[in-house]
Predict the structure of UDP-glucose 4-epimerase.
Amino acid sequence: MKNILVTGGAGYIGSHICLHLQAGGFHPIVLDNFSNGHRDALAADIPVIDGDIRDQTALDLVFERYHPDAVIHMAALIEAGVSMREPARFYDVNTHGSMVLLDAMRRHDCNRIVFSSTAAVYGNAGLEYLDETLPIRPESPYGKSKAMVETILADYASIYGFHALALRYFNAAGADPAGRAGERHDPETHLIPLALQAAAGLRDGMKIFGTDYDTPDGTCIRDYIHVDDLANAHIAALHHVIGQTDPNFDSINIGTGDGCSVKDIMQLCQDVTGRKFAVTNEDRRDGDPARLIANPAKAKAVLGWTAKYTDPRDIIAHAWAYFTKND
Ligand SMILES: NC(=O)c1ccc[n+]([C@@H]2O[C@H](COP(=O)([O-])OP(=O)(O)OC[C@H]3O[C@@H](n4cnc5c(N)ncnc54)[C@H](O)[C@@H]3O)[C@@H](O)[C@H]2O)c1
Ligand SMILES: O=c1ccn([C@@H]2O[C@H](COP(=O)(O)OP(=O)(O)O[C@H]3O[C@H](CO)[C@@H](O)[C@H](O)[C@H]3O)[C@@H](O)[C@H]2O)c(=O)[nH]1
């Protein structure tokens, strides 16, 4: 059984990936500093180290004890909007933290890594679909902090012989279809969980950040990808980097290929939950690209992966089921 170090594994996406790793015959070991994660989001038999990716000593202990065969590196600060006000924290955790981790991997002869990148690296490309051949132009320090890690990984592949794959996720949403895990950010900033809180009467209503974008209804468009599909993509990615003979770096989009506007999501959340809530228009949020929709063809070609959940109603329904069970 292969040992897989999952940094940030106690977070939203990480906890779903751990479920899939265990089901897929891997042995996850989680390193998380619990700045945004939950111990009870993980099965009791998963070793969990409460530590920071910027802490060389903590990393040395983990590598010496568990000798991971590969790393899934998810630990990061995640909110593009916050990064517009506090860039230093994002470069420190996301970029510098990744370098400390990569150097621990080198010290301990572990050179296979799947990295959580983001659609935010594309910025405002002005195109209908985004594919991996486009030049990247991130708008926010968050997107830039991730783009820098992609650049570093490319050099570590060509110079140090790493096998590295960056998965550029579009907007993760939903919850484990069996209800074992879900999204629990506090404070919450993501669109769908906030709308579900509004549907449940836990907040007064929803604000739409920007209605004057160059999109059909004026609100931002995103490609919402089910967290269960995202977790499956990681299993495929892991098999890919573990099976690779020659060192390599590559970036692959993980999305559905379809987009929903903020207004679409407001309506769908009210339809799926059967509850109405107030929606008001606000100014734009800094750092938001108008439109992010994946061309998912490369994921299919290279990893044999495609999204199973293509109807956003299913994504919202799973998130709502988890929310109503746990709140
Ligand atoms: N949620 C999305 O839509 C989305 C989209 C694209 C990319 N991503 C990327 O996916 C990854 C996971 O995102 P998420 O939504 O699950 O976020 P999350 O905040 O739920 O998970 C991140 C985890 O990393 C941990 N962490 C943060 N800083 C750390 C540090 N210095 N050392 C150790 N652990 C640390 C947090 O405690 C948390 O458990 C992130 O890298 C994020 O940038 C997320
Ligand atoms: O109360 C709200 C919250 C969000 N939005 C809008 O909804 C869209 C989606 O926002 P959000 O759910 O916060 O996600 P993103 O800012 O698109 O970022 C997510 O998706 C990115 C990939 O596209 C990841 O890299 C990030 O980590 C992840 O937070 C954006 O246009 C926001 O302006 C609102 O209008 N009102």
Residues 7-8, 10-14, 32-37, 52-54, 74-76, 78, 93, 97, 116, 118, 169, 171-172, 185 surround nicotinamide-adenine-dinucleotide (ligand 1) (CB under 6 Å). The chain has a mean pLDDT of 97. The two ends are 36 Å apart (CA to CA). The chain is about 40% helix and 20% strand.
